[in-house]
Write a structure and sequence with these properties.
Nucleotidyltransferase, domain 5; globular; alpha/beta; six-stranded mixed sheet; single chain; five-stranded mixed sheet; 234 residues; 2 domains
Length: 234
C-alpha cells in the first residue's frame, strides 16, 4: 500500500510517503505561511523520489486539526483534489493525536506516564488533549479542548506528564506551570520530538486506514475547534 500524508496544520509544512508501513520519503520545512507555495513541490519530489505515480496511491492521510485555520484548509483542499483526480481514499488524522504518537517514545524514555499535546491557539489559549501511555499504546484521556493555559494546567493529574507541541513555551511562562508545578513537574520534550510531522500523520493514517477509516470528501471539513469566521469587506 502506498499512502501519502500531508501536514500543514502546524508550523510544519510536510509531505511523506508510507510504503507498506515503512516510511519511503519525506520532505518538510518548519516555517509559517509557506504551505500554499511549498506543498505541491514537496508532493512532486516525494512521489518522484519514490517512483510512485499519483494513480498508484491507495489514499492520502491529512492532518485535520485543530491548528492553523489557513493551513488546515490548504492540505484538505489538496487531499480533495487528489481524490477527485484519482479516486483515492482520504483519511483524516487528528493533529493532536499524531503529535502524541510522534513524541510518545521520547516521553516514555523520560519517565512520563502521560503525554499532553498542546498547540498555541493565540492569546492565552491552547488546543490540547491529554493521552495515557500504556505500554506501546497512546490512549486519549481528554477530548480535544480549547482552554486557557491556566485552566489546562489545573486539570492535569498529579502524574509525570510530557508536553509536546508548540505551546510548551507558553506553558512554562505560567506561574506554577512547567517545572514549577508542585504536584509533578511537566517534562518538556525537545523540539525534534515535539513537532508534528507528515511521517507521524502517515503512520497514524495507515493504522486508521487499516481499521477501515475513510471520509466522504463531500462533507469532510477541518476540525477547527474554535469557531471559524471569514471576514469580508463591506
Amino acid at each position: 500500500m502506498n499512502l501519502l500524508a500531508l501536514e500543514t496544520a502546524t508550523s510544519v509544512c510536510g509531505v511523506a510517503l508510507l510504503r507498506d508501513g515503512v516510511l519511503a520519503e519525506e520532505r518538510w520545512i518548519e516555517e509559517r505561511y509557506v504551505a500554499a507555495e511549498r506543498i505541491f513541490g514537496f508532493i512532486d519530489e516525494v512521489l518522484q523520489r519514490a517512483g510512485v505515480s499519483p494513480g498508484a496511491l491507495s489514499g492520502v492521510a491529512v492532518s485535520i486539526g485543530p491548528g492553523s485555520f489557513t493551513g488546515l484548509r490548504i492540505s484538505l483542499s489538496v487531499a480533495k483534489g487528489l481524490h477527485a483526480a484519482t479516486g483515492m481514499a482520504i483519511i483524516p488524522v487528528p493533529t493532536l493525536e499524531a503529535l502524541a504518537h510522534a513524541g510518545a517514545a521520547r516521553a516514555r524514555a523520560e519517565g512520563a506516564m502521560m503525554i499532553l499535546a498542546a498547540l498555541d491557539a493565540r492569546r492565552d489559549e491552547v488546543y490540547c488533549q491529554l493521552f495515557e501511555l500504556e505500554g506501546d499504546r497512546v490512549t486519549p484521556v481528554w477530548e480535544v479542548e480549547d482552554l486557557t493555559v491556566e485552566a489546562m494546567v489545573r486539570r492535569l493529574p498529579a502524574k509525570p506528564i510530557a508536553v509536546t507541541g508548540d505551546a510548551g513555551e507558553k506553558i512554562t511562562r505560567l506561574p506554577g506551570g512547567g517545572a514549577g508545578r508542585r504536584e509533578s513537574p511537566l517534562i518538556m520534550l525537545p523540539a525534534e520530538h515535539a513537532r508534528c510531522s507528515a511521517a507521524a500523520v502517515a503512520r497514524l493514517g495507515a493504522a486508521l486506514y487499516g481499521s477501515g477509516i475513510r471520509s466522504d470528501p463531500g462533507v469532510l471539513e477541518p476540525r477547527y475547534v474554535k469557531e471559524f469566521f471569514l471576514r469580508t469587506k463591506d
